[in-house]
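Consider the following assembly input.
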Amino acid sequence: MSEPILQVKHLVKSFGTHEVLKDIDFEVQKGEVISIIGSSGSGKSTLLRCINMLETPTAGEIIFEGKPVSYKPKDKNHFRSRVGMVFQSFNLFANMSALKNCTIGTEIVAKKSKEEATALAKKYLKIVGMLEYQKARPAQLSGGQKQRVAIARALCMEPDLLLFDEPTSALDPEMVGGVLEVIRDLARTGMTMVIVTHEMLFAKEISSRVVFMDNGIILEQGTPDEVFNHPTQERTKEFLSRYRQ
Amino acid sequence: MPNTFWEWVAFLCQKYFPDFMRGLGVTLELAVIGTIIGCVIGFAVGVVRSAVIDKGASPVGKGLMGVIKVVLGVYVEIFRGTPMLVQAMVVYYGTMALWGWDIPSFTAGIVVLSLNIGAYMSESVRGAISGIDPGQIEGGQAVGMSYGQIMFHVIMPQVFKNLIPQIGNTFVSAIKDTSILNVIAVTELYFAAKTVTGTYYKFFETYIIISVIYFVLTFVISRLLGVLNKKLEGTRNYELVKEPESTDE
């Protein structure tokens, strides 16, 4: 196996005395689509947030393309510019149009020219089906539309790895389909992705690997077939049974 | 000589019209300059005091930042915790006593007013910054923006927009607060009135005149700011953009 694009080693995260992540080891190979599933409070989102350093881990190491990522602001920002993140609550910049949301990062972080940034933004807004709405501000868009713009914003940085933190949890059922469709298309292009999700059918369909987290540890992982159809752990069976009706 | 109250008012208005106007001019000048400098100070202090010290920053940077924050905290507490009248006295006479500086009272007035407005404004700025959804910062972090870039491009434009009404209020109260500066002989409107009363001893008439001037001024400015605010709110409409199909790759 080639060198993983991202490695998480012995990651521990505590909030006070409460240990949310207990010695997590986790790696991502280039081109993989990994779904992280598990009940609320199992540490899925915290793991994702630690990977992108939005949370400072209590202990452990994050290794990106073979090099440990330091916590110096400069290194951290460079690392983040290579790893995209899509949030449950979108987090689009409220003071900017959809287009500006997409160009700002490429202009001031990736230091591309305005023309180049705009061309990229238009390309990705078109891919997510939001090109028409480029002049709209986040407050003027629906949840599903905002999430699609947020995905375009992350894509504009042309990241090596894309993280999704429950991208459809804040959307009404009608909007979920459109956003999942966009992620599905991305998976086909070979984008490396880690997706925290509660959409089991979707995870089963698009993932190359499924990770089941419970109580701060990775309890079980494998191909979708292994995890969904032949889980070995009782806890996994119990969790999945609630989704099968 | 005039006999009735109203005759006196008319008489004083007429006779001292240029003095009142000169005083009004100084009052406006103080309020405008004081509000502008005060807001600049307030935004700078507010931004620095709410800056999050990055855990990965160098120890020297962290230490320096800590010291600056303490110094600014002391400044804000002192200027919010003492009357402006006393501050005016301390600055005007203190600079003379300590360093022998004979600064013009107008300059001393500007300094006191600006520092006072700056202290209050910085707390409003701090509040407005902490009121912004933390998701806005995380959105910026996720694309790799530095803390400074997030502040400049994302947070402060939103903070500034939210604070426009507050800036307007500050300007209106600055107009009234300038009257305090008469104690260090700044020749603003109240000082002009005080001079006038010295000649005819018509206190009520004179102060009624400047009350009306102050009120008309603040009232008109409040209305204008209201209109300006409405304009800045902007429209909630937007247009869809139809790109020609030829932009495809």
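Chain A touches chain B through 46 residues (CB under 8 Å). Ask yourself how this observation constrains the way the partners meet.
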